[in-house]
Amino acid sequence: MKTKVRIWTNVFIFFLLIFSVNSIQDSNPSNNILNLSVTVIQTKNITMVYRPVDDISLNDFTQTRLNYENFTLKTFPVQDNGLIVNATFSKISVPDNSILTDRQLGDLLDDLQTKADLAGSQYIIGIVRADWIQDRLNKSATGLMSHDYRGVSLAEAGQIKTSTHELSHHKPFILCEEYSDTGWEKLDNKTGFQCPNGDDPDIAGRQLKTACSQNVGENDGCRTNTFAKLYQFDEINDTTTLYNFMGGADNPNVDGFRSWISNETYDVLLGELSGTKKRGLLSIIIRWYHFENGTSEFKNAYVTENLFESTQSEFLVTDGNYTIRTLNDTNVTQNITYDVFFEILYEGGVLEPTSVVAKSVILPYSDNVNNPQSEIGGILELGGIA
């Protein structure tokens, strides 16, 4: 007896959850066929480093890192394996005093940035114990970032969405706070920035939607929802009101966890992550300090081949007040402008001034442009080796 066997290759299986209020209409129900057009978009991977900072326990670090990783994977438009994580249990130390100075905080953020660069990662999250930001920085927040550091954030243990929130402030996403009108407008008005989320198209000028900042409780943010079966972070039903993760703090231990992602924010992330990244350019990274009094201090420079060649264009703010030049003998080979903000952004939309920031820039490497020579006012010049 012969048996016919049918083999399929490259099969895509789609599961559709159909509810009466969201039903799909079939133009010909008698044929038991439903035709759907599906567009498959390839998205870039996100490379992330998680590092424990100061006195956090390794158990708290491990659990928090898993929570942060899971929330980012569930909300960001990346493949199941599209969040490439490099986690190490080696702690980053900070000075053993009560409140960190601006320079000490700058040293910590720069240390994190250096470790991300050497690991070939775009972003790094330093995880600290609960209440660390209040105890060591005297600020009421569960996370922070600065646009002066390309991909660095701090996030406290015991949270779920904080690292995703801080990550989304960074380029190329530059999502803004939905916690308050004031916090949103401060970011929207910064040089080189325009908030891609939360703007009310029905009001002349740029303004955060009223509904986004007037929700009940701490977790303000633009409203959204999802199917209960897709939500793993708390008990909800299909009509539960959720809030975009760009809102304020959402403590999972108080009144239930209700953070998710809005359609608007998802579209922004998808637009930035669509396509593929190229690798392979050998790059030189130059690091230095900028002080608010106008002086600069060179720190170090090193070569890496791990970073993406598109990193520079994604993270650099152009048309700024500072310039970095690379010189080949006497010729200027590159002339790049950037800006310095001297600000730390705490979760909740609070921008606090700082007197010093550690800056870095990524440049294509060549044998005759690899020796930092001098700093002249707002210009850092790199001279070639004869």
Globally, the shape reads globular
Fraction of residues in β-strands: 15-25%
* H/I helix tally: 7
**Class derived from helix and strand content:** alpha/beta
Output the radius of gyration. Answer: 23 Å
Task: Explain what you see.
This protein is of the alpha/beta class. Strands 2-1-3-5-4-13-14 form a seven-stranded mixed beta sheet. The protein has a four-stranded mixed beta sheet with strand order 12-11-17-16, with no helix packed on it. It is globular. It contains seven helices and 17 strands. It folds into two domains: 46-273, 3-Layer(aba) Sandwich (Collagenase (Catalytic Domain)), CATH 3.40.390; 283-383, no CATH class. A hairpin with a 4-residue loop joins strand 9 (283-291) and strand 10.
Brief characterization of the structure:
The chain has 386 residues and is an alpha/beta fold.
List keywords for this structure.
about 25% strand; alpha/beta; four-stranded mixed sheet; seven-stranded mixed sheet; 17 strands; disordered N terminus; Collagenase (Catalytic Domain); about 375 residues; disordered C terminus; 7 helices; 2 domains; single chain
